[in-house]
């Protein structure tokens, strides 16, 4: 009998001699790298426990996925899914639908980044265990910056100048498809992340502050959105208005952009043997909003949670503990390039050999800017939608920054009502 299996059963307060075999339904996405990871965890789970694992597909876009989960939970259906990935902004939104894991996982806390672990504590109870951690970063073509004698930009204004210069020179030389900057600007949660980074980097706050105060309507926030709008159709293709992360990555990895805002996962993919930009990519913190601005990267990442309506709570918790251990987080990085939430994985020789860039990310992970999901509680999805629609209006030319942030303040006030609930 395997020692890992015995230990797992002991943690759940049972023994293998009386263990009940359950089938756990777990979310697994699409794509070859995701499938490889899911195959890995299925093999481990079914060999180290008496249980079986069945995979369920959910929508890729975070807002669509949240909507589907809320529909499932509204009926308290226990037959659809047991274990699933939760976006960093969802623990407060889904609180009553998430199984309380506190007594079963509290011993894991010291292994994780504090920012990632604490994000999952709602009213003092642990509602999820970190899967991977994220913070927005800027990728750049190191070969092109070197060719033109430029250094990685410290501010958005410097990035605009460099991107304009290199795009113009390269297009004159025949590289007609090169763009200065790509990012994900579709009207969805990813644009809320970008808008928060622009506004916070200019010193314009977080739209709603930690104490619940609405701060959206200010000149620095307006200036930040206007700066971003100035890129559309100049250094940035108008097509970004329909991009999510993968569309932006495809353009950059094909060699058709100087700069790209994305998440750290894109680095390893850019260094694949099939990548046209292998060996030509640098990664840096997101620029500041001018000399008086600040570094601001949105905290991202996903957590593993269990449905409060599961009929297999012990087996589901066993799976979550396995998903949270060092070996699984290591494989998650090696197979998919996502950044581990466990600090001990960063000391692994194989991880550091494949991802030396991770050393640059630890500080960003510890100090990233959180979206206003805790302050706005269950109303966060409505607040986020208002933010991304306001940003989209500015980027698409429907409104200027001043008008957009004034309108946004009014919308958020109406969402809040007397108080956040």
Please tell me about this protein's structure:
It is a single chain. Helices cover 44% and strands 13% of the residues. The chain has 421 residues and is an alpha+beta fold. The protein folds into 2 domains: 3-127 and 299-365, D-Maltodextrin-Binding Protein, domain 2 (3-Layer(aba) Sandwich); 137-298 and 370-416, Periplasmic binding protein-like II (D-Maltodextrin-Binding Protein, domain 2, 3-Layer(aba) Sandwich). It has a 4-stranded antiparallel β-sheet with strand order 3-11-6-12. A 4-stranded mixed β-sheet has the order 8-9-7-10, sandwiched between helices. Helix 10 (219-229) packs across helix 19 and helix 18 packs antiparallel against helix 19. The longest helix has 17 residues, at 32-48.
Features:
421 residues, alpha+beta, D-Maltodextrin-Binding Protein, domain 2, 2 domains, 4-stranded antiparallel beta sheet, 4-stranded mixed beta sheet, 19 helices, 44% helix, 13% strand, disordered N terminus
Overall average pLDDT: 92
- The CATH topology of the largest domain is D-Maltodextrin-Binding Protein, domain 2
CATH architecture of the largest domain: 3-Layer(aba) Sandwich
Percentage of residues assigned to helices: 40-55%
Number of domains: 2
Give the number of helices.
19
CATH class identity of the largest domain:
Alpha Beta
Walk across the major sheet and give the strand order: 3-11-6-12
How far the N terminus sits from the C terminus, by CA atoms, comes to: 50 Å
- Secondary-structure-derived class: alpha+beta
Low-confidence stretches: 1-18
Count of distinct strands? 12
CATH superfamily of the largest domain: Periplasmic binding protein-like II
Radius of gyration: 22 Å
Percent in strands: 5-15%
Largest sheet: 4 strands, antiparallel
């Amino acid at each position: 009998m395997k020692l890992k299996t015995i230990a797992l059963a002991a943690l759940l307060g049972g023994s293998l001699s009386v263990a009940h075999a359950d089938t756990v339904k777990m979310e697994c996405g699409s794509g070859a790298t995701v499938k490889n990871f899911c195959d890995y965890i299925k093999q481990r789970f079914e060999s180290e426990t008496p249980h079986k694992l069945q995979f369920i597909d959910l929508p890729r876009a975070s807002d669509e996925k949240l909507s589907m989960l809320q529909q499932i939970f509204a009926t308290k259906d226990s037959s659809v899914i047991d274990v699933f990935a939760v976006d960093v902004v969802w623990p407060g939104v889904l609180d009553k639908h998430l199984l309380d894991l506190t007594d079963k996982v509290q011993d894991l806390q010291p292994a994780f980044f504090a920012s990632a672990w604490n994000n999952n504590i709602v009213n003092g109870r642990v509602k999820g265990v970190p899967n991977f951690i994220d913070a927005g970063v800027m990728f750049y073509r190191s070969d092109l910056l070197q060719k033109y004698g430029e250094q990685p930009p410290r501010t958005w204004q410097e990035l605009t100048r460099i991107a304009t210069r290199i795009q113009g020179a390269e297009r004159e030389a025949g590289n007609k498809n090169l763009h200065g900057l790509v990012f994900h600007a579709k009207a969805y949660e990813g644009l809320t992340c970008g808008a928060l980074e622009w506004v916070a980097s200019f010193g314009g706050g977080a739209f709603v502050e930690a104490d619940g105060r609405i701060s959206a309507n200010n000149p620095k926030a307006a200036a930040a959105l206007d700066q971003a709008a100035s890129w559309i159709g100049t250094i940035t293709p108008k097509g970004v208005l329909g991009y999510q992360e993968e569309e932006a990555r495809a353009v950059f990895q094909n060699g058709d952009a100087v700069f790209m805002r994305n998440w750290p996962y894109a680095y390893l993919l850019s260094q694949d043997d099939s990548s046209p930009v292998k060996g030509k990519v640098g990664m840096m913190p997101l620029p500041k909003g001018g000399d008086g601005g600040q570094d601001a990267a949105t905290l991202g990442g996903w957590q593993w949670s269990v449905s409060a309506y599961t009929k297999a709570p012990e087996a589901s918790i066993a799976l979550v503990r396995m998903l949270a251990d060092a070996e699984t987080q290591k494989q998650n990085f090696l197979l998919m390039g996502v950044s581990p939430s466990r600090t001990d994985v960063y000391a692994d020789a194989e991880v550091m050999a494949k991802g030396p860039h991770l050393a640059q990310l630890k500080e960003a992970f510890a100090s990233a800017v959180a979206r206003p999901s805790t302050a706005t509680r269950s109303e966060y999805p409505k607040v986020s939608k208002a933010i991304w629609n306001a940003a989209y209006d500015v980027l698409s030319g429907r409104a200027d920054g001043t008008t957009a942030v004034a309108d946004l303040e009014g919308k958020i006030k109406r969402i809040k009502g007397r108080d956040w609930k």
